[in-house]
Amino acid sequence: MDSAPDPSPDPEGAERVEQLTLLTERLTGLVAMEAQAFEARRPQDAIVHVEETGRLANIYRHESARVRANPALISGASLIQRARLIRATEAFDAVLARQSRAVAAAQFITEGLVRAIADEVAAQRQQTATYGPGALSAPTAAATAITLNKRA
Known about the structure:
By secondary structure, this protein is mainly α. The chain has a domain at 11-99. Helices cover 64% and strands 0% of the residues. It contains 3 helices and no strands. It has helices spanning 11-39, 50-69, 79-126. 12% of the residues are buried.
């Protein structure tokens, strides 16, 4: 009984895993920098790499979907290469969770500031000067929400 020879390693699969690992590591670094900026309460610093992060995230999404749909694309990679990709992906997931927490905290603080400003504006509008006994204050306009939209 002859056993079939082991298939030769697929250099394309090994190269794909290597490129996907490098992409994941670069994306992890960029997202970590963004998370640090939010944690330091300096969201303006997160904008520096937003274009590159978006571009790499789209490539990552596309390539990871291709590999999920067809795992044979990376079957030619060595076990060591695939393990490195798995570790890079786990690190990326951890950084994404960290960034999510940092962004949520920044959003909570920002919403609190906007609410405090709106409450103060409403309180200022309700204070009218009245004179004499029995003077009535004039009705004031209802407080309205403040909306800031960068796209407007």
